[in-house]
Amino acid sequence: MASSQPGFKTIKEHSIELAPALWEMGFRPFYLLASLFAALSIPLWVARYAGYLPAPYLPGALWHGYEMLFGYTTAVIAGFLLTAVRTWSGQLTPTRLPLAGLALLWLLGRIVVLMPYPLAAIIINVSFPLAVAIAIAVPLIKAANRRNYFAVVLLILMASASLMFQLTTIGVVAWPGYFSLQVGLDLVLLIMVVIAGRVIPMFTNNAISGTKATRNSYVEKTALAGVIFLLVADILQPPPQVITLIAGATAAAHTVRLFLWQPWRTIQTPLVWILHAAYAWVIAYLVLRGLASNGLAAPSVAIHALTVGAIGSVTIGMMARTSLGHTGHRRR
Fold first, then answer.
1. pLDDT tens digits, residue range 20-74?
2. In terms of domains, do 231 and 162 share one?
3. Cβ contact 102:128 at 8 Å
4. Do the beta carbons of residue 305 and residue 280 sit within 8 Å?
5. 204: domain range?
């Protein structure tokens, strides 16, 4: 029986077909592309700075921030969600040509943002998270998996943040570009803490005998609400004292949350402790963010605690776990 959605096949349909390994699962092309881009981004930046590449419409620091967030990080998120939604819904996400099309769209975004063509960059880079949102929405809706609709909403919000950033950069919207980057970081932070709450306690208990990583309903709600409040505050731009209060309270909630997951028991299990370490960086970021809002720490230090520390660690950890788990290798 043919599938009603091109590119979205049932498990049974897919089991009798062969496809090149790279295009069988979403994590394969996107983890590969993200890793290559992370390695190439520094020489690209140097080449641009030295004048060997055409003058782009994004200045150096803004290009770096935009590409690390909406290039590298979004690619990892796409790879994770395109893979995880299979498990969540029991349906297949795009394979073969549809998956290759998504990868090509992401790659075009990385190329065009280096060129002086802002309209093309806006269209392509906003289209990518929207396309991924559609790609995961179809199987989630078919399976009536309402619990995970949040991922679709967050991808749409990521596309909106990308659009706002680029519109402010070309002067269409009178809003500082770094505000949109901060909102984008808040959205990534929200994705991280939601997924972390689901998987880190489970991974910890499954990997380490005798561990009792737990979740407390009150702590969970408080920790997630704090991140949402921080997101709203970054949109509304209240006085710095408000940011400090929200960030401090949220850091306290996430500290309790991490303590309940018993991170000290994971030292001998690298694939688990890297996730706990990433979460510790989330707490460090929140503390530094509160300090930075009152001039007690450099904003760039807070940002890099989140990006290099938390996002860097969690993407390494999740890419390793996903790759091993979905290719039949033992996860140690």
1. 788 888 999 999 999 999 999 888 878 877 777 766 777 777 888 899 999 999 9
2. no
3. yes
4. no
5. 177-332
142 and 205 together in one domain: no
Are 167 and 283 found together in one domain? no
Q: Are residues 137 and 17 in the same domain?
A: yes
Of 127, 150, 175, the domain-final residue: 175
Tell me the whole-structure pTM to 2 decimals. 0.87
